[in-house]
């Protein structure tokens, strides 16, 4: 794809193609390998990789547009893609990574479509955002680190080339951070544990590490635990808007289905389409209000980040909470309007509902966002 070519027509076509097989991926829970081949062919897996490494050099605006459109077609693909964009953008700006590793991960994405994602969550630790040391341990052994542990919710696990593993060292005073682990190394295995209500094709399975050896310089960013209290604001800003953009995309797919349903559904007792009813028009108008709010919130947030004005963690959480909540409300309203037709497995709306509900799970969770906002209002 020409780096200067507009994205929207390409993304619209990809979304339509991906939608054709989305129900099958949802039913089987199989990873959408073919979707990622298409994304690679369009140079979209290296969208946020710097141009000097062969990527498009795209910013947050293009990343948000891309995942939003892809989510309309197949949201599991969009979530894996969002994680790729967040990882690649943060790696490109990392000042702790060895230059050769930073460049290799970027070039691999551009030349081979290699995916990267951070593996942080563990069975006992839960979400790292809520504190605590990981149980995954990196032990110093000569000129290597030996890594052992288990990661859960490892989004895109079957296709990851690079795993950014959150672990602690076995030193007397442990350091904590990211170890860059190629997925092909001996001692790594994937256990297929992912069988969730929605976003089923992300294959966010468990990844187990058993004495996996990596060179010393693959400890790309390890620090004392206390030094992690401050987040990477740019990475957090990207995460705060890319993830909810996926669920906004799902909501827009639900709205599109509902519009078609209202225009074509003609009950015999009515003798004309449901779209002619003021009640249906008003309900659809409320959906348009929610989507318009989302569009404005996302667009203004992206403009700030692109201009170098990085919002604080609290604001990022509010954006994620509001956009996701509005997206869920859109799909629920569509379900109310369509009734039994909406929950039929033959129609996509019930799948959209199951997928959009997963938006509540991502960090930061709703309780954390509300608690922070309340404490700030009370000056606590």
TrEMBL record:
GO molecular function: flavin adenine dinucleotide binding; oxidoreductase activity, acting on the CH-CH group of donors
Residues in Acyl-CoA oxidase/dehydrogenase middle domain copies: 122-212
Keyword Cell membrane: no
Gene3D superfamilies per UniProt: Acyl-CoA dehydrogenase/oxidase, N-terminal domain (1.10.540.10), Butyryl-CoA Dehydrogenase, subunit A, domain 2 (2.40.110.10), Butyryl-CoA Dehydrogenase, subunit A, domain 3 (1.20.140.10)
UniProtKB keywords: Flavoprotein, Oxidoreductase
Acyl-CoA dehydrogenase/oxidase N-terminal domain: residues covered: 13-86
Domain Acyl-CoA dehydrogenase C-terminal: 249-363
Protein name per Swiss-Prot or TrEMBL: Acyl-CoA dehydrogenase
């Amino acid at each position: 794809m020409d780096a200067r070519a507009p994205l929207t027509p390409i993304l619209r076509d990809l979304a339509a193609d991906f939608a054709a097989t989305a129900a099958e991926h949802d039913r089987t829970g199989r990873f959408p390998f073919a979707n990622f081949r298409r994304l690679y062919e369009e140079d979209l897996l290296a969208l946020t990789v710097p141009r000097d490494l062969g990527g498009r050099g795209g910013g947050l605006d293009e990343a948000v547009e891309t995942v939003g459109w892809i989510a309309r077609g197949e949201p599991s693909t969009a979530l894996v893609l969002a994680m790729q964009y967040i990882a690649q953008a943060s790696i490109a700006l990392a000042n702790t990574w060895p230059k050769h590793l930073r460049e290799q991960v970027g070039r691999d994405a551009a030349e081979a479509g290699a995916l990267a994602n951070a593996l942080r969550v563990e069975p006992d630790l839960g979400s790292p955002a809520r504190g605590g040391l990981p149980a995954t341990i990196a032990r110093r052994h000569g000129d290597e680190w030996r890594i052992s542990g288990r990661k859960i919710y490892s989004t895109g696990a079957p296709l990851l080339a690079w795993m950014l593993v959150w672990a602690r060292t076995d030193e007397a005073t442990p350091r904590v951070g990211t170890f860059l682990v190629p997925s092909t190394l001996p001692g790594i295995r994937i256990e297929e544990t992912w069988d969730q209500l929605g976003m089923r094709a992300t294959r966010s399975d468990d990844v187990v590490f058993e004495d996996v050896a990596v060179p010393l310089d693959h400890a790309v960013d390890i620090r004392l635990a206390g030094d992690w209290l401050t987040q990477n604001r740019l990475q957090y800003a990207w995460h705060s808007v890319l993830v909810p953009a996926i669920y906004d995309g799902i909501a827009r797919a639900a709205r599109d289905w509902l519009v078609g349903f209202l225009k074509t559904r003609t009950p015999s007792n009515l003798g004309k389409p449901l779209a002619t009813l003021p009640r249906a028009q008003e309900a659809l108008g409320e959906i348009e209000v929610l989507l318009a709010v989302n569009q404005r919130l996302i667009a203004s947030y992206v403009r700030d980040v692109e201009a170098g004005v990085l919002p604080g963690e609290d604001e990022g959480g509010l954006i994620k909470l509001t956009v996701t909540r509005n997206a869920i409300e859109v799909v629920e309203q569509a379900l109310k309007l369509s009734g039994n037709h909406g929950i039929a497995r033959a129609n996509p709306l019930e799948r959209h509902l199951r997928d959009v509900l997963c938006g509540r799970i991502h960090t930061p969770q709703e309780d954390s966002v509300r608690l922070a906002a309340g404490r700030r209002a009370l000056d606590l």
